[in-house]
């Protein structure tokens, strides 16, 4: 099994639903949504089928998009392969929501800035950018307490694989600072029993 199909299976676990839920709760009204770094497409699958949101997913990895295509079979969504660090192929003001889940904390500073700047270009007036990132906080005891099911065993791999970068992202408060410097509205919330952070830029 390659990484993309493993990741696609992870996205079907209860803990992954708990991870994505805070993002879903931020989508208050129908509208057009762009998911940057959509991976194997779980977020847009839920938003399209359960909430009737009009979704587009983009990713730099063809393998991930192939998995997303399988997951989204028979579902009306658009998936597009993009080139890293280039302007996305959409017109200004195309989207009400832009979601970026588990992506920014892997990128270099200049690439984060480029992605946020382009996201702002793509956003309609009054739209919002929703960013979800693991915090790297907590420990195995808490993971077991909050996510006890055997179906959640992949959460330990996720926790160990993301912990270092996640902690750095949480500590530097990069997006809060970016929003301040660019005079944007910003809010953040610790979610998923302390294991993830939701940030919203308007
Ligand atoms: C950890 S996965 C997250 C997938 C999905 N957003 C989720 O939360 O389940 C990160 C994804 O970001 C993609 N990615 C990495 N750099 C990217 C970039 N510069 N632009 C768009 N996608 C990127 C990767 O190919 C991968 O599919």
Describe the protein's architecture and organization.
This protein is of the alpha/beta class and 202 residues long. The chain is 44% helix and 23% strand. The protein has a 7-stranded mixed beta sheet with strand order 3-2-1-4-5-7-6, with helices on both faces. Strand 1 (32-36), helix 3 and strand 2 (54-59) form a beta-alpha-beta unit. The radius of gyration is 16 Å and the shape is globular. The structure holds S-adenosylmethionine. Residues 11, 36-39, 42, 59-61, 64, 82, 84, 101-103 line the site of S-adenosylmethionine.
CATH architecture: 3-Layer(aba) Sandwich
The level-1 CATH class: Alpha Beta
**Bound ligands, each once:** S-adenosylmethionine
Task: Give the % helix.
Answer: 40-55%
Stretches with pLDDT under 50, minimum 5 residues:
none
Q: Figure out the total of helices.
A: 8
CATH topology group: Rossmann fold
User: Roughly what fraction of the amino acids lie in strands?
Assistant: 15-25%
Helix/strand-derived class? Answer: alpha/beta
User: What pattern of helices and strands is seen along the backbone?
Assistant: HHEHEHEEHEHHHEE
* Distance, first to last CA: 39 Å
Q: Give the CA-based shape.
A: globular
Say how many strands there are. Answer: 7
Name given to the CATH homologous superfamily: Vaccinia Virus protein VP39
So what's the oligomer here? Answer: single chain
Supply the number of structural domains: 1
Computed CA radius of gyration, to the nearest angstrom = 16 Å
| Mean residue pLDDT | 96
Main sheet properties: 7 strands, mixed
């Amino acid at each position: 099994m390659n990484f993309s199909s493993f990741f696609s299976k992870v996205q079907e676990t209860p803990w992954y639903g708990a991870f994505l839920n805070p993002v879903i709760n931020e989508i208050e009204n129908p509208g057009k949504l762009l998911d940057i770094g959509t991976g194997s497409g779980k977020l847009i699958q839920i938003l399209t089928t359960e909430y009737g949101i009009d979704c587009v997913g983009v990713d730099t990895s063809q393998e991930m998009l192939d998995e997303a295509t399988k997951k989204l079979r028979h579902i009306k969504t658009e998936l597009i392969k993009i080139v890293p660090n280039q302007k996305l192929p959409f017109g200004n003001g195309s989207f009400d929501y832009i979601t970026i889940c588990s992506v920014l904390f892997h990128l270099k500073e200049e690439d984060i800035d480029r992605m946020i700047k382009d996201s702002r270009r793509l956003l309609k007036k009054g739209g919002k950018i929703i960013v979800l990132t693991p915090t790297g906080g907590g420990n195995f005891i808490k993971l077991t307490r909050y996510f006890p099911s055997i179906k959640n065993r992949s959460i330990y791999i996720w926790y160990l694989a993301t912990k270092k970068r996640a902690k750095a992202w949480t500590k530097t408060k990069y997006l809060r600072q970016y929003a301040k410097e660019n005079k944007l509205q910003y809010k953040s919330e610790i979610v998923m029993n302390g294991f993830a952070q939701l940030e919203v830029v308007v």
